[in-house]
């Protein structure tokens, strides 16, 4: 087992009937890096993420996440990762503190640990006065920050984020990425998908999926060199427009 | 001639009207143009769409579409507008063809009558004619929804976040389709949270917290941006960001993809920043003047007029 990688996959494949959603992808995500996972709609990103999070059993191939095997230890994976998406994050009709308690308990923290981690989180976000506020009443920017902090409240080795910044204002989007940088700086691996190509530049390495396969994987700098482009937008465009399925 | 006119329109929610969705906004859209409403979730975009398509009554002010009042003449407006709501709202268990046929019939027309208008888009859908709409991919759903909004040849097309969650390639294709529709004389009122799409519009309004911060052409909006903007990059971008913020002559710094966008206080020189970053141990330092983007201007407006910060 390689302790330097948070994710290792080898020929990871998922078929639905005769449709191959994810087609033998092999890659590693290094501990502590920000790993961008890009692809057009229908390229297979969501299916791949579901397998990596222990939510969908692969048809073929191997994968370990945070050291756990996706076939044998799916439950362990769920406890040892963080997950956040734009669509699924906090419960609007619970208060800030109730959301913290709920998710921390789901992630397996005991009462004492919840209190400790919850207090730390509130202080860091400056949300101490808002513990009894309904999440629905928080501005969107605060909600996003709270959701991210909760997703890593159990100090997971890796956090998965599926389009975390969709629809937020440009200031909040940037504040959010600073939180990602901070998490990465303390050693948490960040696996993130986005439709904003400027955000691809913030990643240490980027993988681009086309029609179920990983067509390119490198640092933004090297990818731009390889595709003779001056932006990740253009790199993405060159690769994704070749897609046959949509 | 104006196709859409909005004057001091307000919309309030809650028992005591405490939630202000639209704070007395005004705008005008000239016929045959593409007008973009640009802003994040919760800015009030959808409320305005629903008022203009006569699905919601304004609490203050007045608005008209093609000269028809949105309150008094709602029946007239409904005949001449096409509306693609943000949420996919076609019938999931009807096929592609059935959905299109249904919408054509609602407007007392046929698919064939205005086929010219939708041919471009519909031809990509025809191979899936018998597939249930619910089983289409995101990109295909978007194209079908656009066809259904166009099937009665509307004079004004309302598109509420048609590209949200859509990948960069499909977004480019979508905007190319809108350009072709504009050439046929249709007025297009479109909203988006993606600020890079602003340049595809003839005029744009930046909206935040129910207020319109600015209305201009995309070019004019960037002209509003006064002081020079510097692009800064170095080896470790996060550390560079933290260090740039500490430099006294820097008035603001935001991450912007490959470069940080930095503004200096009046009279400060960029050379000072470069030698400062060198003493901080950075390598591969690059500092250059860059052109601002719509996002720069948006952030600027949010910050200079604190009331837009929510």
List keywords for this structure.
heterodimer, A: 246 residues, alpha/beta, Rossmann fold, six-stranded mixed beta sheet, 26% strand, B: 310 residues, Alpha-Beta Plaits, 2 domains, four-stranded antiparallel beta sheet, globular
Detailed description of the structure:
The complex is a heterodimer of chains A (246) and B (310). Helix content of chain A is 36%, strand content 26%. With 246 residues, chain A is of the alpha/beta class. Chain A has a single domain (5-240), classed as P-loop containing nucleotide triphosphate hydrolases (Rossmann fold, 3-Layer(aba) Sandwich). Chain B is of the alpha/beta class and 310 residues long. Chain B folds into two domains: 2-223, Rossmann fold (3-Layer(aba) Sandwich); 229-291, Alpha-Beta Plaits (2-Layer Sandwich), CATH 3.30.70.100. Chain B is 32% helix and 28% strand. Chain B is built from ten helices and 14 strands. In chain B, strands 6-7-8-3-9-10 form a six-stranded mixed sheet, with helices on both faces. A four-stranded antiparallel sheet of chain B has the order 2-1-4-5, with helices on one face. The two termini of chain B are 36 Å apart. The mean pLDDT of chain B is 92. The chains are: A alpha/beta (246), B alpha/beta (310).
Pattern of helices and strands of chain B: EEEHEEHEHHHEHEEEHEHEEHEH
Q: Any idea what the CATH architecture of the largest domain in chain B is? A: 3-Layer(aba) Sandwich
Q: Give the mean pLDDT of chain A.
A: 92
Spatial extent as radius of gyration of chain A: 18 Å
User: In the CATH scheme, what's the topology name of the largest domain in chain B?
Assistant: Rossmann fold
Q: Compute the CA-based radius of gyration of chain B.
A: 23 Å
How many helix segments of chain A? Answer: 9
What structural category characterises the helix and strand content of chain B? Answer: alpha/beta
- Low-pLDDT sequence parts of chain A: none
Number of strands of chain B: 14
The biggest sheet of chain B amounts to:
6 strands, mixed
């Amino acid at each position: 087992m390689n302790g330097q990688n948070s994710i290792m996959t080898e020929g990871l494949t998922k078929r639905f009937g005769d449709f191959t959603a994810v087609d033998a992808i092999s890659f590693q995500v290094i501990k502590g890096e920000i790993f961008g996972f890009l692809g057009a709609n229908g390229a297979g990103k969501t299916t791949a993420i579901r397998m990596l999070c222990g939510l969908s059993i692969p048809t073929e191939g191997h994968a370990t996440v945070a050291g756990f095997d996706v076939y044998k230890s799916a439950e362990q994976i769920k406890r040892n990762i963080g997950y956040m998406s734009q669509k699924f994050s906090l419960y609007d009709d619970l208060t800030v503190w109730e959301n913290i308690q709920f998710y921390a308990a789901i992630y397996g923290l005991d009462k004492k640990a919840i209190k400790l981690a919850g207090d730390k989180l509130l202080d860091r976000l400056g949300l101490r006065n808002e513990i009894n506020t309904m999440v629905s009443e928080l501005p969107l920017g605060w909600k996003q920050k709270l959701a991210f902090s909760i997703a890593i409240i159990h100090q997971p080795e890796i956090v998965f984020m599926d389009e975390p910044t969709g629809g937020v204002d440009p200031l909040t989007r940037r504040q959010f990425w600073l939180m990602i940088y901070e998490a990465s700086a303390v050693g948490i691996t960040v696996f993130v998908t986005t439709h904003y190509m400027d955000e691809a530049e913030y990643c240490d390495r980027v993988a681009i999926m086309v029609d179920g396969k990983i067509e390119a994987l490198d640092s933004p700098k090297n990818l731009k060199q390889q595709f003779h482009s001056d932006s990740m937008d253009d790199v993405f465009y060159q690769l994704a427009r070749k897609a046959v399925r949509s | 001639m104006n196709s859409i006119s909005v004057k001091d329109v307000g919309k309030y929610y809650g028992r005591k009207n405490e939630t202000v969705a639209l704070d007395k906004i005004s705008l005008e859209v000239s016929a045959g143009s593409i007008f973009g409403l640009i802003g994040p979730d919760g800015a009030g975009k959808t409320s305005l769409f629903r008022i203009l398509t006569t699905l919601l009554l304004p609490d203050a002010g007045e608005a008209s579409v093609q000269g028809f009042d949105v309150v008094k003449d709602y029946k007239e407006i409904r005949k001449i507008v096409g509306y693609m709501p943000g949420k996919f709202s076609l019938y999931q268990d009807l096929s592609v063809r059935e959905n299109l046929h249904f919408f054509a019939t609602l407007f007392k027309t046929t698919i064939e009558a205005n086929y010219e208008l939708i041919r471009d888009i519909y031809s990509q859908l025809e191979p899936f004619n018998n597939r249930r709409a619910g089983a289409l991919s995101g990109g295909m759903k978007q194209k079908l929804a656009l066809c259904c909004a166009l099937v009665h040849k509307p004079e004004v097309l309302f598109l509420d976040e048609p590209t949200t969650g859509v990948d960069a390639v499909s977004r480019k294709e979508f905007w190319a389709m809108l350009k072709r529709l504009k050439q046929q004389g249709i007025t297009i009122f479109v909203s988006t949270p993606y600020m890079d799409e602003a340049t595809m519009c003839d005029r744009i309004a930046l909206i935040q917290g129910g207020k319109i911060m600015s209305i201009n052409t995309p070019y004019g909006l960037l002209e509003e941006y006064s002081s020079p903007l510097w692009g800064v990059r170095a080896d470790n971008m996060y550390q560079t960001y933290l260090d740039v913020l500490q430099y006294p002559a820097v008035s603001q710094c935001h991450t912007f993809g490959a470069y940080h966008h930095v503004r200096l206080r009046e009279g400060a020189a960029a050379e000072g920043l470069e030698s400062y970053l060198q003493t901080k141990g950075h390598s591969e330092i690059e500092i250059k003047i860059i052109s601002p983007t719509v996002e720069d201007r948006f952030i600027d407006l949010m910050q200079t007029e604190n009331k837009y910060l929510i």
